[in-house]
Amino acid sequence: MYILKGGLLGLVVFAVGSIVFTFIRQARGMPPHSVIGLSVIRVLTYGDASWWLALVGAILIGVWFFRTA
Questions:
Q1: Which of 10, 29, 31, 46 pairs with 40 at a CA distance of 20 to 30 A?
Q2: Does residue 31 lie within any of the structural domains?
Q3: Domain of 12, in residue numbers
């Protein structure tokens, strides 16, 4: 059960962080009322190796947290 709880905790933390950091990184220097395209979000997330490493790391940290608690 701790694997499921930890995995879900890791996914939630990762999803929120991914959304926040993607928009912060992309929105700098953009004029007001601009739109960020889906292709840009796809390149900044799925196309980035560090994004995948962060996903695995967040899940492992979540599982470790619930295993030790």
A1: 10
A2: no
A3: 2-26+36-68
